[in-house]
User: What shape does this take?
Amino acid sequence: METAAGSRKILVAIKRVVDANVRIRVKPDGSGVVLDGVKLSINPFDSIAIEEALRIKESGRADEVVIATIGPADCQATLRNALAMGAQRALHVVADAALEPLSVARVFLKLIEREQPFLVILGKQAIDDDNNQTGQMLAALWNRPQATFASKLELGDKTVKVTREVDAGLETLEVDLPAVITTDLRLNEPRFVKLPEIMKAKTKPLASIPLAELGVGGTPRVKTIKTEPPPGRQRGIMVKDANELFTELSKRGLV
Amino acid sequence: MSKVLVIAEHAGGRLNTSTAKSVKAATTLAGAEIVVAVFSTPGSPVAALAAKLGGVTRVIEVTHAANEHALAATLAPQVAEIATGFSHVFAPSTTFGKDLMPRVAALLDAPQISDIMAIESATRFRRPIYAGNAIITVEVAAGTVIIGTIRTASFEAVADSGSAPVESRSASAALPAHTRFVGLASAGSDRPDLQSATRVISGGRALASSDAFKIIYSLADKIGAAVGASRAAVDAGYVPSDMQVGQTGKIIAPELYIAIGISGAIQHLTGIKDARTIVAINKDSEAPIFEVADIGIVGDLFTIVPELEKLIDASRK
Assistant: This one.
């Protein structure tokens, strides 16, 4: 893989997940959730990551947006969607079994070593396993700054100022580049892909890299032994006006 | 035997309740020795506060000028340095713990279990996936320290019943200078904190303006409640994002939750399903919020909310 000297690249790491609009069902035998035939899409936080990278490139502050994912052969369709949004190139690390977040971070570190990006952007979490780990782990392994849950980026030459959505409000950090950013919902609104872009994306470069080539492996250390539906809440009562509501709340000692 | 290191979350010289809840989670591990680590600046009162938490055996206080703000890149090497010998390292699953712990896990080459809602054994945990639409039980292989973030809505805070000894250390790990705190913009209200309040009132899109939230604040102040909002209300700009309740905002477990003009998207319901009593006020009788509400009322919030406030006023005279 060639890297043009001085080229400013952004690497965006994405994951294919069950579409956010699919209502999840747990298999009756507790072995997992039903995945057969369900719609799969780019993790919504990752679409935000792609959008942010594209906006930086379109403003002239990056030369190339490279998308990377890990997954089975048919993940290529997910990468084509990302290319259709406007990214220049994609890297597909081919792996059939799911990897743990720390292994995922190790894979992306290998890609960072090859590509030498000045910025790596990921979604803050995948909406399937909700782990919220990979970006932070990647920053640690790379020994670089992290700015998680970003809602605003102000890119300078050697630093980036990031506004983060934290429990106490909006925190602003300044970090040196290169750095890892993870996106929160309010960072941007991802663009819709237009048909001509989908056609164009078919000829954009997409490299397949066997997982074994990266030398990241090891046996998984966390095993899921049971999957259950969440406990339901009992349906309550309906009251007809503020008087009845007040009476009911008083009765339960709540006001 | 389990040795659990709990990383304290604190700000402004005060311990966040999430710390006492994480200690509570650690106490559910049979026979665990619980040590709380406080990373603070010299002279901070926080270690003494942590020493009072019930069930804590010892407090390790690590002071450093760089600990003025809780930056993951600065804290992670300090946590990794003192984690030796512990079987588990826990922190609350707040934005503090979510930011910090994976960085610690990577430094320790350890697996992390996020959002622990129940501890079944030293190696077996329950946690939500798919925004709480499924709960998994996971087993961690032997021979590794386990990093965990604790879902604070699943555990009650331990009482201030202890008096553990405090051991002071100074950080010797090399701390990076590549990450700098610039500022924190906080809504800074006098109302109770959303995550520890026993009563919470939230407003949704139906409020239709920032100004209309006045009726929510007014009712909240009457009953000593914290005020939250749905994602729709935050996205519409009616209130700041730190008020958002839900999967991508704050996950809360108050005694009383009143959802006003909130339809009840899955991501919102995920954030409130541990509330003891849920009250829903909405003009749409088909709104999904009514499926989880203990008490529901279909009607105009702009009529019902002021009426309810008047009734509460009258009852106190």
